[in-house]
Design brief:
- This protein has eight helices and six strands, in the order E-H-E-H-H-H-E-E-H-H-E-H-E-H.
- By secondary structure, it is of the alpha/beta class.
- The protein has a three-stranded parallel sheet.
- Helix 1 crosses helix 8 and helix 5 crosses helix 7.
- It is globular and about 40 Å long.
């Protein structure tokens, strides 16, 4: 899982909480812009504070933290097996880099590896309005095998709080990753 600098820190934190609750091993990469986002939106000023927020006991057991500058870390190699990757939130800059295979950071390289190895790559984008460049990049990564999932919550479930809206998006991301959850009521 990667956290980049697009607005949407509540999505990232809730997704981390749910992956830990599902007892999933997580390789976590937080870009410098992702850390700034956590600080700005949720007053989480460090990775240590993030760990405390989502649960230190589960974190110790399930989370391996990687430095975004370390392009030689395990997520940068196709031989390091994993179930896929989610970038939540995914900035348009990160989307752009992934769409052209730039691999300038570990986030970008890990996403590139997910695509080349035909593993699940879910990009939870959060930007509006979208430019033609954004749309072209979304089409390019979709054609390469990624799932582009704009953080656009629905309202048919009649949300009563911001948390309900966050859970709607996180539930969709968990569905894409094949992770069971009880966050939202299923349709029908």
């Amino acid at each position: 899982m990667a956290i980049t600098g697009a607005s949407g820190a509540p999505y990232a934190v809730r997704l981390l909480e749910q992956l830990l609750a599902a007892d999933r091993e997580i390789w976590l990469i937080v870009s410098s812009h992702g850390l700034r986002l956590l600080r700005t939106e949720l007053d989480i000023d460090s990775v240590d504070a993030l760990r405390e927020r989502v649960g230190p006991s589960s974190w110790k057991r399930l989370v391996t933290l990687y430095d975004d500058a370390d392009r030689g870390a395990a997520p940068a190699s196709g031989s390091a097996l994993n179930a896929g990757m989610v970038v939540c939130p995914c900035s348009m800059g990160t989307l752009s880099a992934i769409s052209i295979g730039a691999s300038r950071s570990l986030v970008e390289r890990a996403a590139d590896v997910a695509l080349k190895e035909r593993r699940r790559l879910v990009l939870v984008t959060r930007e509006t309005p979208l430019s033609a460049i954004h749309l072209q990049n979304m089409l390019r990564v979709t054609r390469a095998g990624a799932v582009v999932m704009p953080a656009a919550p629905g309202f048919y479930h009649r949300p009563e709080s911001v948390s309900d809206l966050v859970d709607f998006i996180v539930a969709r991301a968990l569905d894409q990753l094949g992770v069971e959850h009880q966050l939202v009521k299923r349709w029908g």
